[in-house]
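2024-03-11 09:14:02 DEBUG pipeline.ingest accepted 1 chain
2024-03-11 09:14:02 DEBUG pipeline.ingest length=138
2024-03-11 09:14:03 DEBUG pipeline.predict start
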Amino acid sequence: MDFDLNLKGKCILSAEDNEVNQIILEHTLLEQDVPFLIVDDGQKALDAWKALDPVLIFMDISMPVMNGIEAIKQIREIEKTTGQHVPIAALTAHALTGDKERMLEAGADYYLTKPINPMMLLEKIKEILGADLTKAII
């Protein structure tokens, strides 16, 4: 899979297979003038992470090909050899007792529940990357 290498080291990566959620993510990030890439499965997320070194990943948990938990685990395993650490926010409809702990144990740094709320999404991005999103990314 080819990626826009102009995004390397300065984009937010989102792995989300639901089209409505993709649209919400896209509109929210476009309004903030933040570089981003949206992929629709965990394997593509892993490949994009390797190629682009994003500053933040929003990872859906239930996706085809490779689920988000497996993608997070693989990213964290590779990071053990590099010493790097990308912030990963699990973005999921799983909100039952134990779900948050399961995702954090897999290696997610943050846990957000769906439906996606654009204001909460922006607050989480600001919390992770700092108040000025453009300067934090570029």
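2024-03-11 09:14:41 DEBUG pipeline.report The domain at 5-137 is CATH 3.40.50.2300 (Rossmann fold).
2024-03-11 09:14:41 DEBUG pipeline.predict end
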